[in-house]
Amino acid sequence: MKRIFLIVLDSVGAGEAPDAAAFGDAGAHTLRSCFETGLLELPNLRRAGIGCIDGLSFLGPVDAPKGAVARLRELSAGKDTTIGHWEIAGLVSETPLPTYPDGFPEEVLAPFRAATGRGVLCNRPYSGTAVINEYGDEHVKTGDLIVYTSADSVFQIAAHEQVVPLEELYEDCRKARAILQGKHGVGRVIARPFIGSGNGNYTRTTNRHDFSLEPPAETLLDAVQRTGQDVIAVGKIHDIFAGRGMTETIYTKGNTDGLQKTLALADRDFRGLCFVNLVDFDMLYGHRRNPEGYAAALNEFDAWLPGFLAKLGPEDLVMITADHGCDPCFRKTTDHTREYVPLLLLGGGVRGGSLGTLDGFCTIGATAADLLGADLATPGRSLREAVL
Length: 388
Hints:
Blueprint: E1 3-9, H1 30-35, H2 43-48, E2 68-73, H3 81-88, H4 106-116, E3 120-125, H5 128-142, E4 145-149, E5 154-160, H6 166-179, E6 188-198, E7 201-204, E8 209-212, H7 220-226, E9 230-234, H8 237-240, E10 248-250, H9 255-266, E11 272-278, H10 280-286, H11 291-309, E12 316-321, E13 341-347, E14 353-359, H12 362-371, H13 384-387
Parallel strand pairs: 1-11, 1-12, 2-14, 3-4, 5-6, 9-10, 9-11
Antiparallel strand pairs: 2-13, 4-5, 6-7, 6-8, 12-13
Helix pairs in contact: 4-6, 9-11, 10-11
C-alpha cells in the first residue's frame, strides 16, 4: 500500500465485551443505543458492510459488502482512550493504568500546588460539565484550579480562560505530567478550559489539550516513521502518543473540522500512514449521554465517506474503527464502556466479507505495519492474506 488512512471513531462501541461485567458495563452497546433513537441512517456504512459485523445485524446486513469487516475484542486491561489507541497501534497493556475513585493523594497534590502556586478545588471523580458549574464561581473568586478525575486514568484540570490564560493552564498540565509518573503515571493529564459569566453558567471551550504518558514500547507510528515514510497525526493523536513517531501533526476543533482536514489530506501526495481521531462522538455525545447527538454525528461521518473514498487510488486503504465504547444510554455512569469495536477495511483491492470476531485491537497495527512494509513487534496478526 502507498497510503493507509486509519480513522478512529472515538468511542463507537459494538456491544458489551465478554468481560464487560468486570468493568461494571454489562449490557452496554453504543451503536445499538444510537440505532434505537430512530435517527440513524448510515447507507454508506451499510453498503461497506457494517451490518455484517457480528452483533450488528440490526444495522442491516448486505449480500455483497464493499469492505472487509470484523468485530474486535480488546486485550488490554482498560477501556480508556490511551490504552485503546495504544492497542490499535500494536501495544497491548496487560497492567491497567492507575485510577483514583477517592481523588488524588496528598503526595500528588502537594508538589502540584507547589509547582503551580495555586490551590486545588474538588479532587474527586466528577462529570466535566457539572464540575465547572459547581466549582466555577469559587475558582473565579480564588484562582484555585479545579482538579478532578473519572473512572478513566486521567488527571483533569479545569480553569476559566480569563482567570488562568491558556498557556499557563497548559504549563500547569506539563508540571502535573512531570509529577504523575511511576505508580501515579495516569494515562492522560487533560487541560479543560472553560468560559462563562458566573452563577454556575459556564461552558467548556474547544481548547482542550491532552498530555499523555509516553507509550512504554514501540508502536505502529514508530515503526512506520523508521522506514522513512510519512506519519500524519490528525486530531488528538499527537497527544495520545506524546508526540512520538509522527512526522506531522494537524490539530482539529471537532469532527467537522477533522473530516474536512482528512478530506484535504486525501488530495496530498504522501506515502505512509494518516492516523485520524474524531473525538466528538465521545466528548460531546457519549459522556454527555446524548444518543440523538451521537446518531447525528454518525450520520455526518456516513455522508462524508463517499466523497473521501472517491479521492483514493488503487494503493490506498481506509481502516475505520474505534478505541472503546461510550454508550450514550448507559445510565450507571457517564464514563466509557467496555465494548467490542468495529473494523471496516475499504479500498486497496480489499475483498469484501465478514472476518468474524477477532482478538485484539492490535490486529489493526499488525495489518497496517505489514501493508506499509514496517517491522512491528506486536501480538496482533496481520489480515493481509485474509483481505487481499
